Amino acid sequence: MKYIFVTGGVVSSLGKGLTAASLGALLEMRGLRVRIQKFDPYLNVDPGTMSPFQHGEVYVLDDGAETDLDLGHYERFTSGKLSRLNNLTSGQIYESVIQKERRGDYLGKTVQVIPHVTNEIKARIQQSGNGVDVLITEIGGTTGDIEGLPFLEAMRQFALQVGPKEALFIHVTLVPYLSAAGELKTKPTQQSVAKLREIGIQPQILVCRCDHPLGEELREKLSLFCNVPTKAVIEERNVESSIYEVPLMLQKEGMDDLVIELLGLKAPRNPKNIWVEILRRIIHPRHEVTIGVVGKYIELQDAYKSVYESITHGGIANNCRVNVVRLDAEALEARGGTTALRGLDGILVPGGFGERGIEGKIVAARYAREHGIPYYGLCLGLQVAVVAFARDVLGLRGANSTEFDPRTPHPVIDIMEEQKKVVDKGATMRLGSYECQLTPGTLAARAYGAKSVRERHRHRYEVNNAYLPQLKGAGMVVSGLNPRRNLVEIIELRGHPWYVAVQFHPEFQSKPSAAHPLFAAFVAAARKHRRTSRGHRKVRRR
Question: Residue 424, Cβ neighbours under 10 Å: how many?
Fold first, then answer.
């Protein structure tokens, strides 16, 4: 097995995760088995309790692990299914070391960062690479951060132990353009690489993030001062249309060829390149729709990262450009707030926690139901749809979720029985992959083309089954159930063109090359609505 370590320098948010994912995609196209993982230096055990404003979305895996959003990139760009072994934090490391010390595993020794913490990190590398040809490890944070030093030291030791042809270091760095000087500056990259070399790590490849072309003269300068061959200075420009341009960009720079050469692998190029067709459908689509996403963290792109990407995937599947309109749920609560929903071809309400913006999400679910607009609810999006239906159609005044109103007279959404005694917040929700049995003839069953599926969950509250007879009697269809516990997984509305809401997170199982069936069906429904509504408007004009 070969090992690739991806580090970052100068500033955070450079796109190390996208670079690692894109490299993984290129190596996979050559027939190699690839797995990608993320090591995060923060002291949280996992990001499950972090605010989206702090960390973006929490990406959930099949085994229930709450992980960094970069693991979403890894799974979207490659075919591998990841596990909790593939996201390591300082919190997990120190927790494990302290537990071992308390048990007496260290036999009375003084427990230190070196070797005990670094040994724990190296053991995780060995453990998580079983069954693959190449293991890519991204180290979070920026070179020079004090909390990241044990990880870098562990990488240095590991590379020394496995040998020079077995491990490779890639450093993603910033080459900023100063408009006053009218040129790109290499000094920040030189300093970042110098910091790595102080630790004992010499990167073999430099990936240079820049917004202007990296000329030959600058490549030679970086080569000289950073001690890498000129051909190993890779330009990674800001993309124009989509993040799915990155694999082709890196391939054009010869990065995958270089990695194959440096690691001594035999993996010829694949003449079939799926990314060319994916990009063609994104840049030159045949159709176009506009979808509104109603959320409470709208100002932060990363809060709904997987949702936005899955909408794009649905567009790719339908050869359709999807214009996403981000709508603040709180703004919809004001008088006249629903004007923002006019003209949309589809409305999507994603997951979330907390009372803020809930009434605005209920407004969105109601508007879609009453105006025949395709509606797609994810997790909380299902719950607000049920609340709106109970209030409006069943006439249950004050119906709500006990999450937002513990004293509601009609708790149509209630906390699950096993969650009532939970005190700790971390990793205690209904997490991971669970079975969903589909009702034949429903929109969901047609979209999936299956009788049963497995989907990833992250929630504490569920539809209260005591209200199911009333809900069903008034036209709500339960098109998906968990067979073991009889929990509602998917709902639809009889007589509505396309109104589907799910208790799970389908955005965690969608790829640009294979859109999630429900996202593809949602975009298709939005296309149909656009055609129909335009036709109706033309008739009215006559």
Answer: 7
